[in-house]
Design goal:
Layout lengths: L1 E5 L9 E4 L9 E11 L1 H7 L2 H4 L9 E2 L3 E9 L10 E5 L13 E5 L3 E3 L6 H4 L3 H14 L6 E5 L4 H12 L3 E5 L5 H7 L3 E3 L13 E6 L5 H4 L2 E9 L13 E4 L6 H12 L7 E6 L3 H10 L5 E5 L1
Length: 306
């Protein structure tokens, strides 16, 4: 089979498309015939060596690429409850695997996989897992209740967009921060208020928001929008901001979780959260896709199709 890997860790141009053996599932695992796999900023971080630099994984000869996947169960190991032929989505959350989802086949633990939204095109389904799961787990750390306020920075991005939709679905008052040209988009996603930056928040909520989901990774500057003793979800692997004014700062490292993936798949099937495909590329043209993402400004996800 063909698979994308990073060995030199020099960025998009160093990504290699290799021929390798089709992996076999072990106990508690499933093999997925990949129909589509989104490209995410974390893939750029791995290909560029940042995951090693930040100490999130040890250096090794080869890193597999790709976290999101949509496809069909092709084979199963003992002790799994997913049957061959089942349309699924999944998240490959182990940084150090030599082969991941940017390939023609991938093996994942069964608890990282769930049935895909019924009737949904796999290209669209491939954009849900990692970004929506990150947003959901970040919202969970904020421990907010319906009616409370949340600021989402980077609200037009992959994680930020899902954070807006999910927060709205959970009954929170959503203040979204993004570029001015994205105001219409984030309001359509469910934002109650739009601000061009966190410094504008206190004209809407003078005491500050109850929680901050910092998808733009602004850091301490965004924390100024949070009330005393509020909460801050920090979405980066590097050092987290200090706990100023009694604010609780939780560093979010996304992890595969089947019950949460199932919840998100069902919400997508019901139309409560959206899918956003910016463009598709064949697996053989992955370098242009990675390079385009690296330039910034992509709204939605670029998706590789084997």
């Amino acid at each position: 089979m063909r698979a994308l890997v990073a060995r030199r860790l020099d960025g998009p141009e160093a990504i290699e498309l290799i021929e390798t053996a089709v992996p076999e599932p072990d106990a508690g695992q499933v093999r997925i015939k990949v129909a589509a796999a989104a490209v995410n900023p974390v893939d750029l971080a791995v290909a560029g060596g940042l995951a090693v630099t930040f100490g999130l994984t040890a250096s090794r000869e080869q890193f597999g690429l790709g976290w999101d996947v949509a496809g069909t169960v092709d084979a199963t190991g003992p002790g799994t409850d997913l049957s061959p032929g089942t349309a699924v989505i999944g998240v490959a959350d182990l940084l150090g695997r030599p082969l991941k989802t940017h390939a023609e086949y991938v093996v994942l633990d069964a608890d990282a996989v769930t049935p895909a939204p019924e009737g949904m095109d796999p290209v669209a389904a491939a954009t849900i897992g990692l970004n929506a799961l990150t947003a959901l787990q970040a919202l969970d750390t904020l421990k907010l209740t319906p009616g409370q306020t949340v600021l989402v920075t980077g609200a037009a991005g992959g994680v930020g967009g899902y954070a807006v939709e999910l927060a709205h679905h959970f009954g929170l008052q959503v203040i979204a921060s993004a570029a001015a040209q994205d105001e219409e988009l984030v309001r359509r996603l469910g934002a109650d208020h739009f601000v061009p930056g966190p410094t504008e928040v206190r004209r809407i909520v003078p005491a500050g928001v109850d929680g901050l989901l910092d998808a733009a990774v602004i850091g301490i500057g965004a924390q100024e929008a949070v009330r005393n003793h509020g909460r801050h979800a920090h979405l980066q692997g590097g050092p987290k901001p200090p706990h100023l004014r009694g604010i609780t700062v939780d560093q979010v490292f996304v992890h595969a979780n089947r019950p949460q993936l199932t919840q998100l798949s069902q919400l997508a099937a019901a139309g409560a959260i959206s899918t956003r495909v910016a463009d598709t590329y064949p697996l053989t043209d992955a370098v242009p896709a990675y390079s385009r993402l690296a330039k910034g400004g992509v709204r939605g996800r670029l998706v590789l199709v084997p």
